Amino acid sequence: MNARRWLGSVLVLLALLGGGLTACSKGERLPDGDAGLPVDPVLLAFLSRAKSAHHIADGHEEAGALDKAVEPLQRLVDGPAPGGGGPSAPAEVREVMADTLARLADLKSQLGQHDAASKDVDRGLELAKETTYFRGHLFEVRGLVDERLGKSLHEKGDQAGAEAAKKRALDAFEKSMAIQAEVIERATAKPEGAP
Amino acid sequence: MTRDSSDDLALIPEEQEEELARALRAAFAPGQLDPAVNEALIAAALEDPLAPPTDEEIAESERLRDALAGHGSHASADLARALRAAAAPAALRPLDAERVASRALGQRVSRRGRLLVVTFGTVTTAAIAIAASWFLVIAPALDGDGGAQLAAQAEALAVSRSTAGMFSEKFEQGATTARVDRIALARSRELRSNRYALWGVR
């Protein structure tokens, strides 16, 4: 590789990075599916961290230690992430965070931490706003969370609260089904002009 | 050996290289001299250390002083310069370095090679080179073929984007780890591709 090419490569990266920073500084977010910054080591570091966190959680979950399974996942969603891990983070980061929050919500719900579980679902939905399986899955988990809450309230004799939770669960499941159907329809739709 | 004669430098025979290397190492980082050897050397050089100098010694010392000051020549002055150069070598001028290298390699060092050496030599130089190149090379290049090449290079890079397209079925409960594994694997491959693209490897 000659010096000019090397220099060009560096400048391409700098230019793309500069463009990304400019976009971020203006508070813009690239639409889902649109081109973002080049895949870089920082993104990979986050994904690698996420992968490790889920595998650690698997080990604890298989051993029946749900409370221990929560810990590495909580560290992941509260730890450092490209773009701050918020709505302006790269798409992969937002989606992995959303999926992790869905798992966290499920675990916490099984542990009886219904409020915390509900908050995790809300946080995940803020990250997965597009119509994708990620969003659909979050509504599905919301349904499970409310279903478990309803059973818990029923056992405690709070029938009104139990009924309300049961209704919210059904709504969430319906919403999940609608999103999944839309994703399937879009994925199987023929492109314009196709025979 | 003087700098003025660098144009006439000749490569020494290979069999002398090792001897020269040993001599340079000894001058640059001399080892301990055995005290007995030291005494013997002094005794051999000076029959009577306190005796007054002879006329011959005075004449030789004046000739050596003049040679060290740059007037005339003296074998001991050449030796002194050689020892000084070995013990505290001065930086080679770029052209000297190139000349020596080209003779040793049997070919002329290209300008591109020198540019690479300079560019990678220090971080500071690289930073300055990038900044200067923006104005001197890149900006003009953007109007020509260079710009198209840069654009094509940028286009070849895999970018961050939604992973939704990787999944064709509804998410199964309890399969989060498998999904994260799949995403990480896909993006790690793309990072590798990006590196190759930036290195100019297709």
Structure characterization notes:
- The complex is a heterodimer of chains A (195) and B (202).
- Helix content of chain A is 74%, strand content 0%.
- In chain A, helix 4 runs antiparallel to helix 5 (114-127).
- Chain A has a single domain (40-188), classed as Serine Threonine Protein Phosphatase 5, Tetratricopeptide repeat.
- Chain A contains seven helices and no strands.
- In chain B, 65% of the residues lie in helices and 0% in strands.
- Chain B contains nine helices and no strands.
- Chain B has helices spanning 14-28, 35-45, 55-68, 75-87, 94-105, 111-121, 123-142, 145-155, 176-199.
- The interface between A and B is large, with 57 and 45 residues.
What gyration radius of chain A follows from the Cα positions, in whole Å? Answer: 21 Å
Could you tell me how far the N terminus lies from the C terminus of chain A, measured between alpha carbons in angstroms?
46 Å
Order of helices and strands of chain A: HHHHHHH
Largest β sheet strand count, sense and barrel closure of chain A: none
Low-confidence stretches of chain B: 1-6, 107-137
Strand content of chain A: under 5%
Shape of chain A: globular
Number of strands of chain B: 0
Largest sheet of chain B: none
- In which range does the helix fraction of chain B lie? 55-70%
- The share of residues in helices of chain A is over 70%
- CATH class membership of chain A: Mainly Alpha
The helix-strand sequence of chain B is: HHHHHHHHH
Structure class of chain B? mainly alpha
Largest interface by Cβ-Cβ < 8 Å: A-B, 57 and 45 residues
Q: How much of the sequence of chain B is in beta strands?
A: under 5%
In total, how many domains does the architecture of chain A comprise? 1
Summarize model confidence as the mean pLDDT of chain B. Answer: 70
**CATH architecture tag of chain A:** Alpha Horseshoe
Low-confidence region ranges of chain A? 5-34
